[in-house]
């Protein structure tokens, strides 16, 4: 980590010299990352797309002429029109309103569970590595044991019993509870070299409390990894949400999510394809934009990446 | 070697026992088979509900630990995995579904590995050239697209092609529909059913092999021994083929070993969309029917597959990697 810091500042000084021959201007770490990020067209496109989607999820329900839970019984399975912008389902629900609402749900579930997964994985992964000895051995055994049964099956079991207005909270809970294990193993491997750093040893011998060391020295050192993981984790969480809801095990009516709309669209694939197309486009834009942002961040933070040109 | 395998095997059996027991308890707490009967109209009498639940050992009025003990002893002593709420034995139901899943997933797994690794090597050698950018863009797109969306659009495309051709080239549901004796027609029929789900599964698998193989090969191409090989005059393609490729295939081989396990457990979404009666689709059925014993049986089978994959991975690494010796 210390090496990469040096590279970044050295590179920063170089660009600063290039740009302003009048005098040295110091470039902060975040300015540099932002600049490297902005230089990648794909990353910027991803960010713009995501902002548009978030705006759509917030503004959509307010400008739609119909609510997602008020079916128009005079327009069943209608093609897109001035009244129903994305058409209606066989039950008469307005697809525009459904997609706006479902996008909000998918975003909320994706972001909440991804952040929670990162927090849990960071704490447990670093703790297991920090204490070494039997804590590490037992901890790794438990982590491996938890990975034996595919997590998708376990999430489906506990989410099945929940429905109604709080169903999405249960789904977020399920994705989080069974989603952090693999990440924790990765972070534990990364911590193995961090725990040998001189200042960690020094802190230990000075009698700093273990959890203070973990919080102050180990977790911040993993900062960039954690940020990238959180962003890319949103894609994974949205995908599992979609899969579960599509199978009818996740979010159920009256609430809706993009996966639930897809499930409704599956049966009318030929007669009313718009029910399928609108949520599919929203989903693909959502996951693709987040992935582009994640890739862009990874290259912007990684000082060795040459993908975007110099510095 | 034998002792290493034995120790690993014993450890894995212990893990499997704890994991499957935990799954059984979790399923018992969260799934409610009684609700199957309560929602029936007319509702059967309480005594009869209780009798059916007790017969399948899923009555929530019995203490949880007692049910767990009965379930465990039945498996250990009689290899009996219990009954579904409809009083059907779950083990035979699982066994018949494994065949369908295997037919579906085997070809797709092989294709995904071959195509994915080939593209991975191709793009790693051309890092940041246009071929790498274009293929990488496609891979990112297919990596993040939800399986359900991909499969449904493949179905739409197939239906349009069928309509344009005027006859049924692709079948979008099931695995078989031919009922004659001619083996060639039977095979053709199977191919017509298999091609769409195979396309979906191959795309999903190939992009992840592509991206990981590219990363691994790029990592080894920067290694000192490859630079040495180049410095002593070896052309780039020879240096990559003789020195870099072999080490970079080790992590991929580990992934392959793990993915063999998934051949038997199938693909939940793909099976649901293409109406193939594999293990994945059966799992959804057990969850919807509150079938505690069935869901646990599938989870246990999936766990066995994972651990067999892990054991295979250990062997593959020992065989391929000259730096690791187990004895």
Strand-helix topology:
The complex is a heterodimer of chains A (311) and B (327).
Chain A: H1 2-19, H2 29-39, H3 41-63, H4 95-131, H5 133-146, H6 151-160, H7 167-177, H8 181-194, H9 198-205, H10 210-221, H11 223-246, H12 258-266, H13 274-301
Helix pairs in contact in A: 2-13, 3-4, 3-13, 4-5, 4-7, 4-8, 4-10, 4-11, 4-12, 4-13, 5-8, 6-7, 9-10, 11-12, 11-13, 12-13
Chain B: H1 2-30, H2 34-38, H3 46-55, H4 64-78, H5 90-125, H6 130-144, H7 147-165, H8 183-221, H9 224-231, H10 236-265, H11 268-273, H12 279-288, H13 292-320
Task: Identify the notable features of this structure and list them briefly.
heterodimer, A: 311 residues, mainly alpha, MetI-like fold, 13 helices, 70% helix, globular, disordered N terminus, B: 327 residues, 2 domains, 77% helix
Q: CATH-wise, what's the superfamily of chain A? A: MetI-like
What's the CATH topology label of chain A?
Answer: MetI-like fold
CATH superfamily assignment of the largest domain in chain B? MetI-like
Give the overall shape of chain A. Answer: globular
Detailed description of the structure:
Chain A is mostly helical and 311 residues long. Chain A has helices at residues 2-19, 29-39, 41-63, 95-131, 133-146, 151-160, 167-177, 181-194, 198-205, 210-221, 223-246, 258-266, 274-301. In chain A, helix 11 (223-246) runs parallel beside helix 12 (258-266). Chain A is globular. The model of chain A is unreliable at 1-14 (pLDDT under 50). Chain B contains 13 helices and no strands. Chain B has two domains: 2-78, no CATH class; 90-326, MetI-like fold. In chain B, 77% of the residues lie in helices and 0% in strands. By secondary structure, chain B is mostly helical. The model of chain B has no long low-confidence stretch (mean pLDDT 87). Chains A and B meet through helix 5, helix 6, helix 11, helix 12 and helix 13 of A and helix 1, helix 6, helix 7, helix 11 and helix 12 of B.
């Amino acid at each position: 980590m210390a090496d990469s810091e040096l590279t970044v500042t050295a590179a920063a000084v170089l660009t600063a010299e290039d740009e302003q021959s009048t005098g040295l201007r110091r470039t902060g770490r975040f300015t540099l990352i932002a600049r490297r990020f902005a230089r990648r067209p794909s990353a910027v496109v991803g960010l713009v797309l995501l902002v548009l989607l978030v705006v759509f999820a917030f503004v959509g329900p307010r400008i739609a002429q119909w609510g997602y839970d008020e079916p128009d019984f005079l327009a069943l399975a209608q093609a897109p029109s001035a009244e129903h912008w994305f058409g209606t389902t066989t039950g008469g629900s307005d697809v525009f309103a459904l997609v706006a609402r479902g996008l909000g749900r998918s975003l909320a579930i994706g972001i909440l569970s991804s952040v929670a997964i990162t927090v849990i994985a960071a704490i447990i992964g670093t703790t297991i590595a920090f204490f070494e000895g039997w804590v590490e051995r037992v901890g790794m055994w438990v982590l491996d044991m938890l990975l034996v049964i595919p997590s998708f099956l376990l999430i489906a079991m506990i989410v099945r019993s929940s429905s109604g207005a709080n169903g999405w909270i249960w789904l977020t809970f399920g994705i989080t509870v069974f989603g952090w294990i693999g990440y924790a193993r990765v972070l534990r491997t990364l911590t193995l070299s961090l725990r040998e750093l001189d200042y960690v040893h020094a802190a230990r011998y000075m009698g700093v409390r273990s959890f203070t060391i973990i919080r102050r020295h180990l977790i911040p050192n993993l900062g960039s990894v954690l940020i990238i993981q959180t962003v890319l984790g949103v894609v994974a969480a949205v995908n599992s949400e979609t899969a579960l809801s599509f199978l009818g095990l996740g979010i159920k009516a009256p609430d809706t999510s993009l996966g639930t709309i897809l499930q409704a669209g599956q049966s009318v694939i030929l007669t009313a394809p718009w029910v399928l197309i609108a949520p599919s486009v929203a989903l693909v834009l959502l996951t693709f934009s987040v992935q582009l942002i994640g890739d862009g961040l990874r290259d912007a933070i990684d000082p060795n990446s040459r993908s975007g040109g110099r510095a | 070697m034998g002792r290493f395998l034995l120790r690993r095997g014993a450890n894995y059996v212990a893990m499997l026992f704890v994991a499957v027991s935990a799954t059984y308890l979790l399923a018992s707490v969260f799934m409610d088979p009684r609700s199957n009967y309560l929602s029936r109209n007319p509702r059967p009498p309480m005594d009869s509900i209780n009798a059916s639940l007790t017969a399948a050992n899923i009555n929530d009025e019995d203490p949880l630990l007692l049910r767990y003990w009965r379930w465990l002893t039945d498996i250990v002593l009689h290899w009996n995995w219990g009954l579904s709420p409809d009083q059907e034995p779950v083990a035979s139901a699982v066994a018949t579904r494994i065949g369908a899943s295997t037919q579906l997933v085997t070809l797709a797994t092989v294709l995904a590995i071959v195509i994915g690794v080939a593209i991975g090597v191709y793009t790693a050698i051309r890092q940041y050239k246009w071929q790498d950018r274009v293929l990488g863009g496609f891979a990112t797109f297919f990596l993040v697209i939800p399986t359900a969306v991909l499969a449904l659009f493949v179905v739409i495309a197939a239906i349009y092609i069928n309509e344009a051709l005027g006859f049924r080239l692709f079948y979008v549901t099931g695995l078989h529909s031919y009922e004659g004796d001619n083996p060639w027609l039977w095979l053709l029929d199977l191919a017509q059913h298999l091609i769409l789900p195979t396309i979906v599964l191959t795309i999903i698998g190939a992009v992840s092999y592509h991206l990981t193989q590219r990363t691994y090969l790029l990592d080894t191409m920067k290694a000192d021994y490859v630079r040495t090989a180049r410095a002593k005059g070896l052309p780039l393609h020879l240096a990559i083929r003789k020195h870099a490729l072999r080490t970079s295939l080790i992590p991929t081989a580990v992934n392959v070993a793990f993915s063999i396990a998934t051949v038997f457990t199938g693909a939940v979404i793909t099976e649901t969309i293409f109406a193939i009666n594999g293990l994945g689709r059966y799992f959804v059925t057990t969850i919807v029917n509150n079938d505690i014993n069935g869901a646990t049986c599938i989870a246990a089978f999936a766990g066995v597959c994972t651990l067999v994959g892990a054991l295979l991975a250990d062997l593959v690494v020992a065989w391929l990697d000259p730096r690791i010796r187990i004895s």
